[in-house]
Amino acid sequence: MTYDTATTLLKSDNATNHEVFRGRMYIDGKWTESASEQRFERRSPAHGHVVSTFPEATAADVELAIAAADAAFRHGRWPKLKGAERARVLLAIADGIKARVEKMSLIESLETGKPLAQARGEVSGCVDLWQYAASLARTTSGDAYDTLGEDMLGIVLRQPVGVVGLITPWNFPLWILSQKLPFALAAGCTCVVKPSELTSSTTVMLMEILEEAGVPAGVVNVVTGKGPSVGQPLAEHDAIDMLSFTGSTRVGSLLGGLASKKLKKVALELGGKNPQIVFPDCDWDAMIDAVVFGVYFNAGECCNSGSRVLVHESIAERFAQAVVERARQVPVGDPLHPDCKIGAIVSEHQLSEIVGNIEKGVAAGARLRLGGKRYDAQGLYLEPTIISDVTPDMSIAREEIFGPVLAIIPFSDATQAIEIANDTAYGLSAAVWSRDIDTCLTVARGIDAGTVWVNTFLDGYPELPFGGFKSSGVGRELGKQAVEDYTETKTIQLHIGERRNWWLPRPAA
Ligand code: NDP
Fold first, then answer.
1. Does the domain spanning 275-454 belong to CATH 3.40.309.10?
2. pTM of the model
């Protein structure tokens, strides 16, 4: 039996009350247009109107931004400031974000298509990331070794790595930038930021906050425009010391390869095909809620999306029916409607990719239980989709879809569940649902993933490291090491007292 979604699209009248945001680039402390004087526009994927416009950066603009960051690092005062002083600036930035939550959330919602309520949660959550980075600016330190013998003291310094290129995607624009920039600044680095061309506004708005908070000119620079022309130099340019990228595995491995060839430090936060593994003894209601939340949060446009559910075969049919019933109640539609939980898909390209993936799954023999089609309405909306009877070899079980699409895969025991969970190129996150502690720990230890949730999903804290195994990335963000990732280690060896000559015998005592 095939279900149709009963959900009707939510509508709102607020969309038209929005002023177009005219963004500019921020280079060496100045607000600038592109050398070419060209601009590009971003339209709301939900409403179709122009939300914002930005300069289309040229190679010359990117060169200026990198030169400014380089000069600010080599000759500026930011890397030399006391940790306490950098912390004060980061805390002022956190306050600046807090004061602009409404303004930034609205434009984030209009550009991404995500529900306004969710954008508010995301923007206000960034405050905590900047505050946490401020705490690390004061506490990150090197080490000393007084255990090397009477005549030697070892000192290990943590020095800022230099100029960092930051490339961010469109799904959580301000959040993902806030997982990188405050930590790079806490370390004393200088940066060039390239936001996604689809969602550049909050990155540009953040520069107003940085300016007010007293970040010196050249320390952070923003260039706007297309990935290959504007982003690629941040991986290749000789003056860039480190690349930190979040986005697709395809572009991440391309840029990581280019940066590694130049022997730069590289941090990559890439895709996922994250399994939630459900055992029959779990808390049923909590699990169903977390499965629906896990796949439909941010319309599934989320590297951490719980896009695969591995269900014990004894409960697979009961699970499919329950999750379909719950998914039918999730409100879809205008992101500005207060009840909205699933907004618009970010672009026509992304929407047709998702639909293509669904069709591929059905053609391979999987069973469409809910949704599967775009809504016949203005705006880029997709029905919440559930597909069951998926086998681990199907592309729908293995490839990142990045949309509101759940694949249900049955398993027979914990060993097989772990095998299926690990049988993809990715290893970002996973969850296990059971009341049995042995089951939870066995599965959590066996899965190749940077994060494993037990009886919950998608919680996150700045204190906890985040990142992936395998093709999900290289390195970790957040956690107490977050600032260290933007440093180089320098060893200083201090000799104490008279140094023994290399070849002359010691004078007799
Ligand atoms: P991309 O990886 O293409 O984009 C991420 C960032 O990289 C953007 O700023 C983009 O700029 C930039 N970029 C793109 N191509 C290049 C290049 N050749 N050189 C330098 N920078 C580049 O992701 P998409 O936006 O195209 O999304 C495609 C897929 O990626 C999604 O379907 C999803 O699977 C995955 N994705 C994963 C994310 C994650 O969080 N792990 C986030 C976003 C996407 P621009 O936007 O201007 O092209």
1. yes
2. 0.96
